[in-house]
Amino acid sequence: xxxxxxxxxxxxxxxxxxxxxxxxxxxxxxxxxxxxxxxxxxxxxxxxxxxxxxxxxxxxxxxxxxxxxxxxxxxxxxxxxxxxxxxxxxxxxxxxxxxxxxxxxxxxxxxxxxxxxxxxxxxxxxxxxxxxxxxxxxxxxxxxxxxxxxxxxxxxxxxxxxxxxxxxxxxxxxxxxxxxxxxxxxxxxxxxxxxxxxxxxxxxxxxxxxxxxxxxxxxxxxxxxxxxxxxxxxxxxxxxxxxxxxxxxxxxxxxxxxxxxxxxxxxxxxxxxxxxxxxxxxxxxx
Length: 286
Hints:
single chain; mainly alpha; Hypothetical protein af1432; 17 helices
């Protein structure tokens, strides 16, 4: 089993979903400074299932509004373009790849992914960095684990078991078993989904941001966001080792291990909010 065969499988396999075309219109409109809430709302409402999911999220315990948000346009006005854009991406990715046919617990992966996205958002705000692509890269940095679970469910569960039993990084075990790791597999899916090249590059190199060729800062943020989730008890459970502080990324962005610990503590306090968000994605309410 080699990398080209997996690449071919990712492009061919029928079970591997694609993102709906409406998502690209939604993301482009959200990025357009001349677009209105009505413009964005029209694109979202074109997908009735997505509209229903977003309204469930907005009215979930995660936001805790005292009055019900009844329309997508109202949600955009209340939350803002960026928040609705992030909600749309998260809801679409979860809806597309949320369920597993194997024993791999994707719900905990989404908990970790949301935690990383929230950590990336905090990094960007505190360091006043360019936020373009950071939420997407952090949210989807481990999406390659879903790819491997889709293509080889039994073998991927075995890889996760071995990583935990032998206390090793899952990526090292993946390379032994598949000749590819989740970072590379995730980047291939990102290409298949037509994600921005900088986001694809950040997914590919979130464990080695010094190799990122398009936007090294984006990969550095993804690496640090992934790291911060572990002391916040939001780490990804297939990993047999807790990632070490990413020195390269921390040095480049001037984000010390101590500041990462402070961010992790803040993120830890938001774990219930993350669970509320996941409950909203699943249509549950508290």
